[in-house]
């Protein structure tokens, strides 16, 4: 998971909890302009903070490019993308979850190999960042035959 500017510690903690439950290998967050590993994150993660590695990096775009060089497919999240239910996370993959209000930064979005969307039929057309991350983590898990 690559988290682009997540600001709410409850979102980060919840994402960590789901990541641990489904065997995500790690989470990448920026060193600045995002929530860091706080006591609120630890409490919300209900212990997952002890098991999910977190890498704090200076530049998410450069990190994503380096991952691609190593064979990792980068999938972003956007309102205009491939239906996540049709996504097959075979092989090394990383999913980018954007900032709660602004989404994924334009530069990072350009680096993504593909964009995924979560179709919604209700009146509200957005999901909480941790809820969106949970849906995508679960889809990635099940698409691998788990």
Give a quick summary of the entry:
By secondary structure, this protein is an alpha/beta fold. It has five helices and six strands; from the N terminus they run E-H-E-H-E-H-E-E-H-E-H.
Along the chain, the helix and strand elements come as: EHEHEHEEHEH
Count the beta strands: 6
CATH class: Alpha Beta
The overall pLDDT, averaged over residues, is 94
- Give me the CATH fold name: Alpha/beta knot
Shape: globular
Widest β-sheet, arrangement of strands: 1-5-4-6
Please characterize this protein's 3D structure:
- It is a single chain.
- The protein has 146 residues and is an alpha/beta fold.
- It has one domain: Alpha/beta knot (3-Layer(aba) Sandwich), CATH 3.40.1280.10.
- Helix content is 34%, strand content 22%.
- The strands form two sheets. A four-stranded parallel sheet has the order 1-5-4-6. The protein has a two-stranded parallel sheet with strand order 2-3.
- Helix 1 packs parallel to helix 5.
- The longest helix is centred in the last third of the chain and has 15 residues.
- The protein is globular, with a radius of gyration of 14 Å.
- GO terms for molecular function: RNA binding; RNA methyltransferase activity.
- This is tRNA/rRNA methyltransferase.
- Belongs to the class IV-like SAM-binding methyltransferase superfamily. RNA methyltransferase TrmH family.
- InterPro entries: Alpha/beta_knot_MTases (IPR029028), rRNA_MeTrfase_TrmH (IPR004441), SpoU_MeTrfase (IPR001537), tRNA_m1G_MTases_N (IPR029026).
């Amino acid at each position: 998971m690559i988290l682009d500017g997540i600001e709410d510690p409850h979102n980060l903690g919840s994402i960590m909890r789901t990541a641990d439950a489904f065997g995500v290998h790690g989470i990448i967050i920026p060193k600045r302009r995002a929530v860091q590993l706080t006591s609120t994150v630890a409490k919300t993660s209900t212990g997952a903070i002890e098991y999910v590695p977190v890498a704090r990096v200076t530049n998410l775009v450069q990190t994503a490019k380096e991952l691609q060089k190593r064979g990792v497919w980068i999938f972003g999240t956007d309102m205009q993308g491939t239906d996540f239910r049709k996504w097959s996370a075979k092989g090394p993959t990383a999913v980018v979850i954007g900032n709660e209000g602004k989404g994924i930064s334009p530069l990072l979005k350009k680096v993504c190999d593909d964009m995924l969307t979560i179709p919604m039929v209700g009146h509200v057309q957005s999901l909480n960042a941790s809820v969106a991350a949970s849906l995508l983590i679960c889809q990635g898990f099940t698409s691998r035959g788990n």
